[in-house]
Amino acid sequence: MKVQQTKRHFPENSILRPRKLLNETGEKESGAEGKGKSAAKGRLGSQAVLLLVVNGLFAVANALSGTFVNIYLWKIKNDLALIGWFALANQAAMSITIWIAGKWVKEHNKMNSLRLGVFVSAAFYFSILLLGKRSVDFVLPLGAVQGMSAAFFWLAFNVVYFEITDRDNRDSFNGWSGLLASAGMMVPWIAGLLISRMPDTQGYTVIFSISLVIFLLGVVVSFFLKKRKAQENYEWFHAYRQLADKSSDWRRICSALAAQGIREGVFGFVIGLLVYIATNNEMQLGNYALITSTVALISYWLIGKYLKPGHRSLGMLIGTVMLVLFILPFFWQVNYSTLLIFGIGTALVFPLYIIPMVSSVFDIIGKDRESATLRVEYVVLRELALSSGRIFGTLMFIVVVSLSRSPLVLSSMLLFIGSTPFVAWLLMRKLLNVVHQVDKSK
């Protein structure tokens, strides 16, 4: 329906109120941010830029040390299952924390949740520094602390992200987010260089210390983000009601997110570990991260810039098929060459899969005022669905590596887990088209 822009006065809650004065939460935009949206459709406002900076610092600090935490634990004790338990504790704590923190984020200052997430990340690396080689005896509490930090940060981040973006600039924001994360491509390489040049685990102490400083800097920058308007009455069991409602699209969406999480839960830690096991060299892992991040940098920029909502379904399908195909070289041999083929290929096509997935889910959250009012609950539901998939995938990994270390078994497991994005596309493809139809009707 085309609405004629006149000088008529609309009620504050009218759906006919000019779109440029409202964001998807139904709240007025003001200041530079609001003017930016009305003046240049699709451009990011100042608050979106600041949020990207905070996200960038968080990503850089994690890229610096997160890449090597699992390697550090592996060097102390060569146990794949131990690494799996560390990841599982992370994911379980993240799920519980997100559900509980939802009340704080909705009813109080969500920016404090984001800051706490960055601060707890700093506390995690401080704990690693204190424990040293005894860290392997505390993998469950350490994993839980890291999971809590991620929960506080990403819950607040995703809610604020929803509030300061809309359908016109959401793909652009996600492209820039991936671009900034990839822009830290030199960070793991530098970390690998430092670790390889220093004796024993001294290099790990240095990079964990640097990460600690970057996280604290992220806390400082976050204070330049405006305090967001709080809401009332957090609905504790909103997720359950959506899943119990057979007519709700969220049953399909959550299944798709769980499928996405299965891959994330395992590939997020196992690929870097496999690169180190294959090379026994931190510098090679740094080189691997540099090469794949460079490819991802270019891919995120191009796809974020040119992928339009109308092409999301096709783009996601192409990305999904290619993600699966790049796993097949592991059946020949798992070595640095095949891992590099996988890494470069995945970096090239992953944005085709993830940008439509993220953007479409948040578009669905913002489809109307009623849904946008429950944005915190929907973000919690989204994260819980992802976490359920991550936990399932990690449990599968622990069971498989506990029973067999056969290369064929491990490659088959990676192929099965790596194919789950195709399930996500099957479940989301109709909803991607619905989102496009809604866009055209505006």
TrEMBL record:
It is a multi-pass membrane protein. Its main location: membrane. The keyword Transmembrane applies. It is found in: Cell membrane. InterPro entries: MFS, MFS_trans_sf, Sugar_transport-like. Keywords: Membrane, Transmembrane, Transmembrane helix. Pfam families: MFS_1 (PF07690). The keyword Transmembrane applies. PANTHER family: INTEGRAL MEMBRANE TRANSPORT PROTEIN-RELATED, MAJOR FACILITATOR SUPERFAMILY (MFS) PROFILE DOMAIN-CONTAINING PROTEIN. This is MFS transporter.
